[in-house]
Amino acid sequence: MLISSSTYQRDNLCSVVVDYIKELILSGTYRAGDHVLESEVALKLGISRAPVREGLKELEKEGIVTVLPRKGTFITKFTLEDMKEVFDIRLLLEDNILEILINENKMMEEDFDTLEKIVNDMVKIANSKEENMNKAIMINMKDMEFHKFIWQKSGSRRRVELLSGIFFQLRMAMLYDTNRTGDLFATATDHYAIIKYLRNKDIDKCKRALREHISFYKEGMSQK
Amino acid sequence: MLISSSTYQRDNLCSVVVDYIKELILSGTYRAGDHVLESEVALKLGISRAPVREGLKELEKEGIVTVLPRKGTFITKFTLEDMKEVFDIRLLLEDNILEILINENKMMEEDFDTLEKIVNDMVKIANSKEENMNKAIMINMKDMEFHKFIWQKSGSRRRVELLSGIFFQLRMAMLYDTNRTGDLFATATDHYAIIKYLRNKDIDKCKRALREHISFYKEGMSQK
DNA sequence: TACTTGTAGATTGTCGACAATTAATTGCCA
DNA sequence: TGGCAATTAATTGTCGACAATCTACAAGTA
User: Fold this and answer.
1) How far apart are the first and last CA of chain A?
2) pLDDT tens digits for A127-181?
3) Are B79 and B40 in contact (CB under 8 A)?
4) Does any strand C atom come closer than 7 Å to the Cβ of B60?
5) Who's near B201: CB < 8 A, 6+ residues apart?
6) CB-strand contact A51/C, under 7 Å
7) How does pLDDT run across B35-79, given as a tens digit for each residue?
8) Residues from B in contact with A at Cβ < 8 Å
């Protein structure tokens, strides 16, 4: 089970709903176009419909679900066009963050250590004897960790927020592509290049490394 | 009164709340840091608290209000740092849109006509004998119209959404700057340069014109 | 006076129920 | 049998009420 069994306990139930539905999407229980029944979620979580509706509203604003008034809430369907749009916006924002990091000297030596540690973990996972599907999931988590760390180093809360939403949408779209567990090792080691050029303050090569790294999203899309 | 007295009637009451609070912000009734009482809004609009909460959630996601759990909802306070961040993200996205328009030949001759008509209106307003405050408000509306038209021509729904939110935040921040009604004529004619370079497909000059045009946001910020 | 503690008021978070609307089913008729 | 109309069921939108929590004020003590 993917759901972090530990604590689903927060300030308000709304965030519980958000996490719950996100987990159900990533675990494949909810698929694109599925109808999310408010009462069903409420019953499942043992709460009333009010916080469920709030959670759905939040997910709507993140583009994860689509609300059709008086019809219902549905898991967002991404067309190829949509994915290209999301992909390009991510690239635009993350390129911009790389510029900030380099131009404003935001990265310290210890930060590179942190990044390298994350990538080392990724490589270890890629080489492990785990089942391929599990490896892909675990590496995806580390990938998220890697990029989020970089985003946060920019010090721009808004950019982090935007990119977090975008990242999830990309993950969603990739779920329906079974051929996405291929070159896990390459995906992992890709990150070393980003670290290297970031350290050398070589903006152009750094951007190119990023572009090559995340381009499998785009390739995956065009396969469909 | 700014509130469009006509129709506050939509699919659901939630959007009524959103519009209502946005109007109250732009009209200066709500100021940065103000506490937005759910029950007060509900009473004022003659509805219950449920749709009010939904509306507030939407505004929170747009960065317009800030929700402190179990404390309340407050009109977002923008620091100088915040504004710089918002400003830079707008520039990044709108630059990107200009590139799309030029590279992908998205602008037709009739589109330029539309833009010129909008700017003509702006100049007319700037030269009118209206009170300065009203002129500023009217020109701001036309400015929004101008840029939104350009955004939409990119065909990227997500970029339009992001920029719309950002635009409102910039307007909010400017409200507290009384010295913002100075060179209305220059602000209006600025747009002709953008049209000109967009027509000539001169990306660099177009970007520069945009930057110069919207830089008064930034200058305004540093005045404080 | 300054500080802590306890209480009262106000506000948010959650709930269950009802109204309005949509979708599905059934029954009727050609 | 096929298509249309009326009824039924299911789902969302909204409401008022209650519970949990926070804030402000007041009383009491050192």
Assistant:
1) 28
2) 998 888 888 888 889 999 999 999 999 999 999 999 999 999 999 988 876 556 5
3) no
4) no
5) B102
6) yes
7) 999 999 999 999 999 999 999 999 999 999 999 999 999 999 999
8) 11-12, 50, 53-54, 57-58, 61-63, 69-70, 85-86, 89, 92-93, 96, 156-159, 162
